[in-house]
Amino acid sequence: MKLKNIKIEERMEHYNVNGLSIALFEEGQICGTENYGSLEVNSDRKVNDDSIFSACSISKLLTGMLAIKLVEEGHLDLDENVNERLVTWKVPENEYTKNKKVTIRNLLSHQSGIKDPEGSFLELNSEIGFPSIIELLEGESHYCKVPIEVQFEPESEFHYSDAGFCIIQQLIEDVTKKQFYQVVNEFIFEPLGIKNSKLDTTMSDVDRDNFSCGHNKNGELVDGKFPIYPYSAASGLWTTSSDLAELVLELMNAIKGESKLGISESLAKEMITPQRGKSWTGLGVFLEGSEKELEITSLGWGVGFQCMMVAYPHLEKGAVIMTNAELGVHQLEGIIGEIYKSLLF
User: Fold this and answer.
1) Domain count along the chain
2) In what order do the strands lie in the sheet with 317-323?
3) Angle, to 10 degrees, between the axis of helix 59-72 and the axis of helix 162-176?
4) CA 3 to chain centre
5) Which residue ranges traverse the bilayer (predicted)?
6) Which residue range is the domain that position 48 belongs to?
7) Model's pTM, two decimal places?
8) CA-CA distance, 108 to 165, in Å (whole number)?
9) CATH number for 210
10) How far apart, in whole angstroms, are the C-alpha atoms of residue 32 and residue 49?
């Protein structure tokens, strides 16, 4: 698999993109990486295979895989009322939860009936610091000022939700009695040999040579250089294109019954199956097409960064595209879209 008919440096200049990293994979392995530009405007820090970008909401793919692994281990149940195992916080009972309770399946497919409050889940304000997930869910932080509750009957509507993934994070921490990043390290990163990815990110972590700065649509540094999202399960992952590709390869291998993590073929296939009548949403990923032509995607868009994962599990091909630019348009309408359309699958 390769790129065709695209002059990447020219397109980067057109879109004011300073840095770009691409990992291509097929037949169960990475078949190539391509790196362009710099990690910071007007610097000599060049993008390479070890360069770390903010994955933003692609973090939800990682959370989906962790949740599935914990279901496999018996720590969680996809279709159980999450309040059965939540300890430190509970989904408030109300008129919408009388007939249907919120489940992990609902949360992973954005069908829990929870809608994020307007203006919530912004990047870290270093003067205010990191909130606890409980503070977020109770509406007692700068990042979410309204208590999280079910606003529609579960499975009745689709609402993309960071809050839903915060609930998953709290559930995992309650069940394992460990911090979320520790559980990810133990169950995902260490078994897969993923070494250049972090969730427990602080400002001192990111101010290092291999971390990329964020840039706006004009190619200028964003405030603070390294925008951090203090909700790991929803959008806290910092990673390389090749590490992210390894994660996707694990999912694709699990679908074939060849998981390194011990995820069963049936549960892996559940991740890429349309959920509750919504053809476009799986568990932590989005779907297009069907059968052999099935495409799974995960998109990341935050302050200073945009990225995309696309994979064709039945064709055993895919790509990860990461940039340190927020263009102000949907990924498919900018340079990521041009690269995606140029991929020879």
Assistant:
1) 1
2) 29-37, 19-26, 317-323, 305-312, 295-302, 286-288
3) 40
4) 24
5) none
6) 2-344
7) 0.96
8) 7
9) 3.40.710.10
10) 10
